[in-house]
Amino acid sequence: MPRTQLQKLFFAFVTVIITVHAYVFYSLYVIHGSTFIANTGASGVLETISKMGGVPVLGHNVPIWAVVLIEFVLAYTLEIFVGSPQSFKIACHYFNPQKNHPFIFETMIISATVLVMCPIMSFIAAILYYPYNFMEFNVIHFLAEWLKLVCFNFRVRKRRLRRKRRVRSSCPRVKVMPLPIC
Questions:
Q1: Could you read off the pLDDT of 42-77 as tens digits, one per residue?
Q2: How far apart are CA 24 and CA 16, in angstroms?
Q3: pTM, entire model
């Protein structure tokens, strides 16, 4: 667990370096992947971006390294001023740092950071990658793109339940009736 302010800044720096690259490509794929591929006839999103000469950010094509740099600066700033303080408050709301094991408390802080930063960064991605050159700005379309990106980020996959072999026993089966909802 980082204890000093310098350690917190370094931890945030390393975290943002690791997550921003994946998030930029994921956001581009979710928001514009199929449109980019259909317009250029390329087989993948990165090939499409290179054919287009960059990524459309606020209506202008920007090289992919600039997009990563822009999102890195935004993510690091938000992590320092919004994500870390809010996630610590959320973790303290549910766990006591003096009573709970540090591993559990740190895991809660990390989970709360994802809970706080994901919608914020999705909002920023929706602003940056909105198709300004294809259409005029529409608030409803913008909010729909943001909600779509948040839903894709927090998506929960259904797990296939394996059928367990039933063990035959001498006990009769009992039907369990659901409890009435008041």
A1: 777 778 778 888 888 887 888 888 888 888 999 999
A2: 11
A3: 0.70
Residue 182 to residue 30: CA distance in whole angstroms: 41
E strands, 48-159, where?
A: 55-57, 60-62
Q: For residues 119 and 150, is the Cβ–Cβ distance under 8 A?
A: yes
Contact between 117 and 79 (Cβ < 8 Å)? yes
Q: Which of 51, 57, 48, 50 is nearest to 24 (CA)?
A: 57
Write the DSSP symbol of residue 97: T
Q: Which residues contact 91 (CB under 8 A, 6 or more apart)?
A: 97, 105, 108, 109, 112
What is d(CA 170, CA 73) in angstroms, rounded to the nearest whole number?
66
Strand partners, 62: 55
Question: CB under 8 Å to 37, separation ≥6 — which residues?
Answer: 43, 44, 45, 48
